[in-house]
Structure formats: structure tokens, C-alpha cells
Write a structure and sequence with these properties.
The protein is α/β, with parallel strands linked by helices and 449 residues long. The chain contains 14 helices and eight strands. Residues 108-407 form the Dehydrogenase E1 component domain. It is found in: Mitochondrion matrix.
């Protein structure tokens, strides 16, 4: 009996130590006031003599009356902002105090992206490229978040993050080359337009299926954690993608594996033609964070400074503490979902005009700069003229370039071409030679066969 009693005491001490370790880990979630989140209470040491739940899956109390949790008893998660719609700083202590040069760079990148969008959108309408997606209204989420990252941080985008890549230094010529699938395209013409990627800039190539990037980002962040590098991963997605099963997998993996990862949700109001009230019934996407055990914040996505502050703090803590963060940036998709969409079929012109004229991230930042004497009407006219000229020059160069060499259809999969691929390659060239009048090979780069 003494041996049994001793074993019980040892078991209790070990279990208590494990509980204390788990408690210390959970307490890290409560150390910073910037992110207001409802934390799970620290689970108490195991004591079978107490009439309290001992289930390992959650910490709670027993109740003796039947009551379902109401979804709307708590007011909505507040939206963090720094500037109002007129570009005035609401709380001076939240002003990031960025230099004039930095703010001007923000503005020029946002407007350059806007100019590129207009020209490439018109190009698709003229039949010069097959497809395009604009970023109208979401420029603040791109530039604000990109500026807060380290250049070595890894980016997983969806298909509306061109501004992130532009801020990192991706040249206009390569944007154009990708959309035109010409010989300069880093992807060698294998992807549809707007599916950018750059190994040099740590920007993972975009894929079309929704939410596949979330579990991939979790895996990449876990790898960085294991390598003990001072790097983070940021993963962008829309509120529609948050309804996919892959979103749950990515969020849950990152939380349980404690990965240095920032989930950045662009809540722009519509998942193609599906409005948010048909997409979910809860309080947006940030409300899901506590359920996964991660710190969350909702920001004004049309306020580039609010996006910058939130991403910078999330990035700092994600690396320092090895834990994921969820940022929900509230914004509005002013343009059509893509060139395959006509948004006038599911929303009013007045609604779109409000966001375009009254609450736009570019005009808000311009108000801020104008109030400080950093920008004038002359500056605006000069920059708009210069930026359009720069984009048009890149556009014209891209149109004149040849298409990628057809041989590239069979490369980059295996180090040495397999017999099966060799047969496919030979079959292709037999077909091309037989019907050469339908295949203008002079339009392709360095054709050799």
C-alpha cells in the first residue's frame, strides 16, 4: 500500500509540473495589450476531489441550467484605425511617425499599382491578354503590410496581392511579362495572368485554387521555426477563402505547432458575387482566431498606417514568441472580381461609388500628405503623367517580346527527361511539323528542333 501511495504522489507531482508548463505557455498569449483577445483561462492542476471539469480539451466550469451560447451577445470586434477618412491622425500615440520619403513611397507604389491595373485591364478588354484581376480599393492592405515585413520573410499570396510584390521591388517589366506569358516571364509562360512569383523576393508563386496557400504557409512557417531563423511567413487570403476546408487546416496547424505566421485576411465584402452576409453568420474572420487559440485583430484596411502598425507588431511577436497571428483587414473591392465578372449584376453603382469617392485608401493617404505640405496638385499631375508613361513603356516592351521556347513545356519537372516525356515531346513536334501552317514558330523564342 505504501508503494501505491508513493506512486500516486509521484504521479500527482509529475502531472502538476506538466500542467504548470502548459500554463506558462498559455500565459504568453496575455502579455501584450496591443491585440485584444479573449484568452482561455489557465487550466488548474488536476484534483479529482473538486467538482470541476477535468476534461483535457477545454477549461471551463460546470453549470446546472441548460443554456445555449448565443452568437450575438457580444458586440462586434472593434476596427483598429490610425487615420480617419480625411487623413487626420485620430490618436497621436498611434502615429507610426514614418518619414516623408517612406510615406511618399507608399503613395507612389499604391498609385503605380492603380495605373498598371487600368492599363492591363484595358489590355484584356482589347483581347491582348487572356485574363486580369485588378486591385482597386485594396492598395492600402498591400503596401501597409508589405512595408512592415522583413525582406527575408516568406509571402504566400492569393491572387490580389500584386502591390506586395511591387513594394518588394518586382519590376513592371516582369509584371507585364507574366501577364503576356512572354519569354521574359519567370514562370516561362506556364501560368495564367496575375499568378506572379519571385524566388529572389521570397514571394511564392500564386496558384488558382482557393485557400491552398494556408496549409502550405503553415508548413513553411513550421520549417522556419525548426531552422531557428529570424523569419516569419505571411499568408494572404480573402474572406471567401476562409470558408474553404484548407483554411481550417492551415489555421489549426499553425496554432497547434506554434508557427511564426501572420494570416492576413482581406475582407473586401464579396467572394466573387457572394456578399459576406451569405458567406458567414459570425462576426467576420477575426472572431475565429480565439477559437483556434491565436491572437487576432481587426483593422481598417483602407488606412495604410493601421495596416502597417498591426502587421509590424504581429510580425515582431510571431518571430519572438513562435506563434501565429490573424489580421482581418476590412476593405472594399471596388473593381470587378476579375475580367470574367460583371459586378453590376450583384451590387449597386451607388455602393461602389461611395467606396471609390468617399473612403478610398489612396485618397486618404493623399489627404494626410497634403495636410503636411508633402504633396500638391502639381505633384499629383506630374506623378500621374510620369507613372502612366512608365507603365506604358513596359507594356509596349512586353507586347513585342517573343513567346517562350516550346521546349520549355517539357523541362523543370525532372532532372533528366523521362521516356514518357520524351514520347510526348516527339509527338508534339510531329504534329507541329504536319500542321506547321497553324503554328507560327517564328513568334517563339530561340526555336530549335
Amino acid at each position: 500500500m505504501a508503494a501505491v501511495s508513493s506512486m500516486r504522489k509521484m504521479y500527482g507531482l509529475c502531472f502538476h509540473a506538466v500542467r504548470q508548463t502548459a500554463g506558462r505557455k498559455a500565459s504568453r498569449l496575455l502579455q501584450h495589450r496591443t491585440f485584444r483577445v479573449t484568452a482561455v483561462h489557465q487550466q488548474q492542476p488536476f484534483d479529482s476531489s473538486l467538482e470541476k471539469p477535468q476534461f483535457p480539451g477545454a477549461s471551463a466550469e460546470f453549470v446546472d441550467h441548460l443554456e445555449f451560447i448565443q452568437p450575438n451577445v457580444i458586440s462586434g470586434i472593434p476596427i483598429y484605425r490610425v487615420m480617419d477618412r480625411q487623413g487626420k491622425i485620430v490618436n497621436p500615440s498611434e502615429d507610426p511617425q514614418l518619414s516623408k520619403e517612406t510615406v511618399l513611397n507608399f503613395y507612389q507604389k499604391m498609385t503605380l499599382l492603380n495605373t498598371m491595373d487600368r492599363i492591363l485591364y484595358e489590355s484584356q478588354r482589347q483581347g491582348r491578354i487572356s485574363f486580369y484581376m485588378t486591385n482597386y480599393g485594396e492598395e492600402g492592405t498591400h503596401v501597409g503590410s508589405a512595408a512592415a515585413l522583413d525582406p527575408n520573410d516568406l509571402v504566400f499570396g492569393q491572387y490580389r496581392e500584386a502591390g506586395v510584390l511591387m513594394y518588394r521591388g518586382f519590376p513592371l517589366d516582369l509584371f507585364m511579362a507574366q501577364c503576356y506569358a512572354n519569354a521574359d516571364d519567370l514562370g516561362k509562360g506556364r501560368q495564367m495572368p496575375v499568378h506572379y512569383g519571385s524566388r529572389d523576393l521570397n514571394f511564392v508563386t500564386i496558384s488558382s485554387p482557393l485557400a491552398t496557400q494556408l496549409p502550405q504557409a503553415a508548413g513553411a512557417a513550421y520549417a522556419l521555426k525548426r531552422e531557428n531563423e529570424n523569419r516569419a511567413v505571411i499568408c494572404y487570403f480573402g474572406e471567401g477563402a476562409a470558408s474553404e476546408g484548407d483554411a481550417h487546416a492551415g489555421l489549426n496547424f499553425s496554432a497547434t505547432l506554434e508557427c511564426p505566421l501572420i494570416f492576413f485576411c482581406r475582407n473586401n465584402g464579396y467572394a466573387i458575387s457572394t456578399p459576406t452576409n451569405e458567406q458567414y453568420r459570425g462576426d467576420g474572420i477575426a472572431a475565429r482566431g480565439p477559437g483556434y487559440g491565436m491572437l487576432s485583430i481587426r483593422v481598417d484596411g483602407n488606412d495604410v498606417f493601421a495596416v502597417y502598425n498591426a502587421t509590424k507588431e504581429a510580425r515582431r511577436r510571431a518571430v519572438a514568441e513562435n506563434q501565429p497571428f490573424l489580421i482581418e483587414a476590412m476593405t472594399y473591392r471596388i473593381g470587378h472580381h476579375s475580367t470574367s465578372d460583371d459586378s453590376s449584376a450583384y451590387r449597386s453603382v451607388d455602393e461602389v461609388n461611395y467606396w471609390d469617392k468617399q473612403d478610398h485608401p489612396i485618397s486618404r493617404l493623399r489627404h494626410y500628405m497634403t495636410a503636411r505640405g508633402w504633396w500638391s496638385e502639381d505633384d499629383e499631375r506630374s506623378w500621374r503623367k510620369q507613372s502612366r508613361k512608365t507603365v506604358m513603356e513596359a507594356f509596349e516592351r512586353a507586347e513585342k517580346r517573343l513567346k517562350p521556347n516550346p521546349e520549355l513545356l517539357f523541362t523543370d519537372v525532372y532532372q533528366e527527361m523521362t521516356p514518357n516525356l520524351e514520347k510526348q515531346r516527339e509527338s508534339l513536334w510531329r504534329h507541329v511539323q504536319q500542321y506547321k501552317e497553324h503554328y507560327p514558330l517564328d513568334l517563339y523564342d530561340k526555336y530549335q528542333h
